[in-house]
Fold:
Amino acid sequence: MPDKVSGSLFIVAAPSGGGKTSLVRQLVGSLQDIVVSISHTTRKKRPNEVDGVDYFFVDQPMFMRMVDEGAFLEHAQVYNHYYGTSEAQITKRLNKGIDVVLDIDWQGAQQIRYAFPDSVSIFIVPPSLDVLHQRLTNRQQDAEAIIAERMQRARDELSHYAEFDYLIINDEFAKAADDLRAIVIAHRLCITQQVERQSQLLSFLLSS
Structure:
């Protein structure tokens, strides 16, 4: 029976509208022992979002108290709202041997990589800026002025792709989902992971 080892941390980032949330949801639905870290945010809940499932929705004073208490591994202000990743939520799951996926922006990714240098980072980009604009428009969640602001920010975000370990082009969703799943599976099979997980088997094989 494989030995219990600590889980791995996977960072998935993309510009707004890049499709990372849908891809991450598909990933955790297709593999065992992997979950999405739920961020805290001060923004208002959107239709069909559930508190404690999509985000922990808190007001700004509570968020700032959590910052002062050192509760977040990373936090950032995005589009006039604050987002943060709870340290306790991540470490508890990793210690149980569960892989954790962070759906965050590139700024948060920088802070997480500093705290978890062994984390695996993945950047997702659209096939073109025209496609990105169309996806933002199709969501019907923002006014055109907000979409224009998101597009401008996306150009800056895309310039940080080289900071990540892997790059996925989200042109066809099914292929992008397969690519993301392949990265996680490959990491689980890398030699350092397997030496820990299969230590008993390897010892038996070498002593036989």
User: Anything to note?
Assistant: The two ends are 17 Å apart (CA to CA). The mean pLDDT is 90.
